[in-house]
């Protein structure tokens, strides 16, 4: 959308991380770990690769972005606010009564949300529907589905995976925030889904494996993914849960526990110290 | 005795109407989960192969794709057996369709126990209960070929999620060709003074037969066809309850959570009268011919008559 350079995108992602910390500390509940791990991916989409118009959220030719891992809503809200869908100040209403910023995304309440999510494993099917509508209408938009490693546990994911390749669905790009943890612990201890790349390849998806915090790599891979014809694309992005805040990184306590005021101050100080 | 003139199965009426709708509206897109020959979406598939997809035996994915299509302005009609689509797709109906308020049309076949010989695993006596509890979903159950055709057309015009049950066997004809139907408006088929028989689906004809038998015994019954369980026609129910002072609810569904439960809760608020129920009890049915099952599980005109007489004795206490 915008001709932003990598450094600027990294700076925006850092601001988003600060938003996430502030919002969650204010709400005193929510999911910091998975919001911080997906931030760079969302920054790359909303501020670089995806075509969208905050002044016209229902633009028929817009790219569709589905946050299938709905618990990372704070990261999505920050991306929407900072790209101009609503004032950044409003982020502090997260999870409060009457706020459009529900605990998990609610399309009825907030322009820019393509589909309500929060129950895992459903976004890929919805994305297929949107990509199918594109094909029927001969439009040229892309559908992006942001999914998670935990969502790979869900059977519906694999129903969708089989369908999309069989029907040669292109203009459909899934990006997996592979942060290695789910609520109850490490993915490899709860229900290991490895070999992840082999699984997606064998399901007929054109598969990339990238560092989900390397902004240049994310952007380049998405641009490359858009050139793939007659097949859906899965970008497996290796990420760190809680990325950007050292005491949250890889610490699954912060899967679904908001930082205290004191922890938030420490986190913000650390994020402020990052140089780009 | 009322003549039992058989019309099409409501699933056939659905399949044919869908083709007509498809000719008029390019946005209609139909999907099935490997039961198109049984749900009759195969009629549409033959005429519009570009607007039909069989997703395979994957109901959750089916519902999700429909939500995505609806979010982009399409009007998806999705079908499978009632038990499979509603139970396996339920969470997707909740999250991706109802909570997202999307314009998805869910038309299931093989509702109730009149599915017959295939047995309990293929029958559905819980679909109303499940779909009634999802916010915004319209819940419909046509009683014959004519009403099925009209209500499928209404569903296509209506903006929002719709659930409709159709059945496998041929249904007796109740309505004249061209009868007008409106979502949420019950049909008062007969007006009586002593009690009101409220029925839905295949039980509507049984209710009419029951009213004939009751008439011979000097009891005059109103008969209402509730083709829309949600939103239900409160006004018509209240009016008939006030007039007749007793009700019998009849449905090919579990006694828990279907027509009877909705009518009881409406009447408790609007006009408390004695109510009794003709429905499948707290049990699964079994294999058998549809008529044998309807009889064994107590859903015949004779059962309605018996239940009516019981409720009348409570009314007169």
What does this protein look like?
- Chain A: Pfam families: Transketolase_N.
- Chain A: Keywords: Thiamine pyrophosphate.
- Chain A: This is Transketolase.
- The complex is a heterodimer of chains A (276) and B (317).
- Chain A has nine helices and seven strands.
- With 276 residues, chain A is of the alpha/beta class.
- Chain A has a five-stranded parallel β-sheet with strand order 1-2-3-7-6, sandwiched between helices.
- In chain A, strand 2 (143-148), helix 5 and strand 3 (172-178) form a beta-alpha-beta unit.
- Chain B has helices at residues 10-24, 36-39, 42-47, 59-71, 82-88, 90-98, 127-132, 145-157, 203-216, 234-244, 259-270, 290-296, 301-315; strands spanning 6-9, 28-32, 52-54, 75-79, 105-108, 138-140, 162-165, 170-172, 187-190, 195-199, 221-225, 228-230, 247-254, 275-280.
- Chain B has 13 helices and 14 strands.
- In chain B, 42% of the residues lie in helices and 20% in strands.
- Chain B is globular, with a radius of gyration of 19 Å.
- Classes of the chains: A alpha/beta (276), B alpha/beta (317).
- The A-B interface holds A 60, 64, 106-108, 114-119, 121-134, 136-137, 143, 155-156, 159-160, 162-163, 167 and B 29, 50-51, 53, 55-56, 58, 60-61, 63-74, 76, 91-92, 94-96, 99-101.
